[in-house]
Write a structure and sequence with these properties.
This protein has 198 residues and is mainly α. It has ten helices and no strands.
């Protein structure tokens, strides 16, 4: 089923993590243009779903995308701003999409989009064997002992995956994503085959 604007917004807000969402909400309250968002409404927000609902209810589905892109750029999340523009498709003039460079790529995915980026939300939700993945990444020198300890300290596998993706993997760039993909194929083969078949 094709994703809606709300789905794309929620993916981006999930991607920001708690710190990123905090910056986003602060910048949202600084907006001077109408419609304005009330502080009381922002203080009630608990997660990415609540934030998505607030954005769509305040700005409509059509208006929420350009406002979100504008705020993402203002707080330094340019990658997420571009991703939202490409996926939601309504605010292309704000952030030009790169010209496709590979003809063999799927027309629904941006040409440069890595498997890890494309399936980030599913990976956070569905990967269970995070410790085994961390062992492999540590062995490959993609993460440090400090990263390993900090991620293992998280309570749930979802929190561990989110911290891994938004921290060391994001910092390591393509090399980190390639290494994570290899580790996932070794430890979560069925999940990866399912995602690749989508």
């Amino acid at each position: 089923m094709e994703k809606t604007v709300k789905d794309h917004l929620q993916d981006i807000f999930d991607d920001l993590g708690q710190e990123g969402q905090k910056k986003f909400k602060s910048k949202l309250l600084d907006r001077r243009e109408e419609p304005r968002v009330r502080r009381a409404a922002v203080e009630k927000l608990e997660d990415a779903i609540d934030l998505t609902t607030l954005m769509v209810n305040t700005f409509t589905e059509t208006g929420a995308v350009p406002v979100t892109v504008q705020i993402l750029k203002a707080i330094g999340f340019h990658e997420q701003a571009n991703e939202l523009t490409q996926n939601a498709g309504q605010s292309a003039p704000l952030v030009p999409s790169p010209a496709p460079s590979n003809n063999h790529q799927s027309s629904t995915a941006p040409p440069h989009e890595h498997f890890i980026d494309r399936h980030r939300i599913e990976l956070i939700k569905r990967v269970n064997n995070v410790n085994a993945i961390l062992d492999e990444l540590l062995q490959m020198n993609v993460i440090t002992d400090e990263n390993y300890s900090a991620i293992c300290a998280e309570k749930t596998s979802q929190e561990k995956m989110r911290k891994l993706l938004m921290g060391p993997i994001k910092s390591a760039g393509i090399k980190g994503k390639d290494s994570l993909y290899k580790a996932l194929k070794d430890t979560e083969r069925c999940l990866i085959e399912d995602l690749e078949g989508q």
